[in-house]
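TICKET #2291
ISSUE: user wants both folds in one file
ATTACHMENT 1:
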Amino acid sequence: MTPLRQRMLEDMSIRNLATNTQMSYVQQVAAYAKYFRRPPQELGPEDIRTYQLYLLETRKLAPSSIGLATGALRFLYKVTLKQPWAVEEIPMPKRPFKLPVILSREEVMHFLEAVSSLKHRTLLTAIYAAGLRVSEATHLKITDIDSQRMMLRVDQGKGQKDRYVMLSPRLLDTLRLYWKAARPTLWLFPGDLPDQPITRDAVGQACQKAHRASGIAKPITPHSLRHAFATHLLEAGTNVRTIQLLLGHRSLATTSRYLKVASSTVCATTSPFDLLPKVEEPPPLTPTPPAHF
């Protein structure tokens, strides 16, 4: 390990950045140095601009992927290398605002029925029933189930924050049936190695397989179930602030985007077209006879 990488890892650890963030930032800086075949200390703003254009025009990466690389370089040059130009000279790409595609309740049920594995179906059901992120669901432990208070404990979710979410009676029954069949000991959803939780990739592959089997045309990822959880709660009349707490969102603005997709808000207002007096239907078109020459 180079001294620079060690220093950057120490800087991230001091600031208590999540482990996944640390790994991603180190990988991004390594790819950046490999592209120029020079150490980052010898590179500057123009090199960063060249690299961003390479990611955009040659690699054809999405703004979110370029933003990850940019975040890593900003940290490197501002915190670890302490360059005064760091933030000002490293532009962050603007991400396009996209609304999530929402599954209906019937589509959620149909999708879950298409999941063939009991473990995968139970995990994906928990994501929908409690609004979990996939990383939160994969890291659930047996001890996180509080059937007395009907709560699930989310240990160190995004932003390294603990929170409690609802444990519905139906989900509790589902978890109990799964436990009787699988008998997990530490992790609720163990991976190939019993002392390790199931991986995100394994959940993603199971989701893709079920998506194909379901025949649902809408795109579906594990996160789609979390989107559906929030939207269905909102449509049922749950307060936005309550949904924010359940989802573990830092900002209410993040949760409020579901107002844009919930049928209870989008469809609650009558279209002015429906208020117009009924207009008589126009007479059917008379086919024009063919011209004769």
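ATTACHMENT 2:
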Amino acid sequence: MDAEIRTLAARLAAAQVLRRDDPMVRRVLTDELFYQQLSERLAAVGLEFVDHPYAEHVSVRLAREQEQAVFGGEETWLSNNLGLARDQIALLVVLWALLILPKRQRQIERKSSRDSISQSEMFATDKPIPTGAELGIGVNENTLLADFGDRLGGKTRISIGLGVLSRHRLIDRRGGQIVEGPLLDLALDYERMAGRVLDGTLTDLFGTQLADVLPAADV
């Protein structure tokens, strides 16, 4: 088992993100001992396993107790470890709100509907929770520019930002449409961020455009 743990830890560190249906990832999610041993191996180098039951992928991130040593070691606190500029971070948060929050709301609604099926259907084939792509959730680049261009630095800065986020696999760009990339659902802590966003933190910054497209607060 130690060799498998070492291999999976190395794969996560090298690839950053793995699909939930990967055989070794499935084992982490279903084998408590395997999960504990992986967590201990990652913790030894200041990392922790990142998963969300509604996300398609898993990843690793810096452990909370290491944030001060890593991000606060210089004169100013580093905002991220991807080299993102401030306007790119703002763009990331907006896209997370526009892509992940609606997806999560629909996923929760689908799961609640499935959980309320009749007794006679209890043993029916369990369908996977739909992904953002399957739900048709995306953001048109022209719409993004029209709604938030003045707050996010204009067309040139947004275009540069989208390219950077795409290279980091946070988003995918498909024929003028922006959809979530493998890391977007894991980049921000949903439990910590969702309430703040839905309670109006981003609305204060970006006005009613954002509030109009976000789901009702049910997190």
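RESOLUTION: both attachments delivered.
EXTRA DETAIL ON ATTACHMENT 2: The chain has two domains: 2-71, 86-118+126-213.
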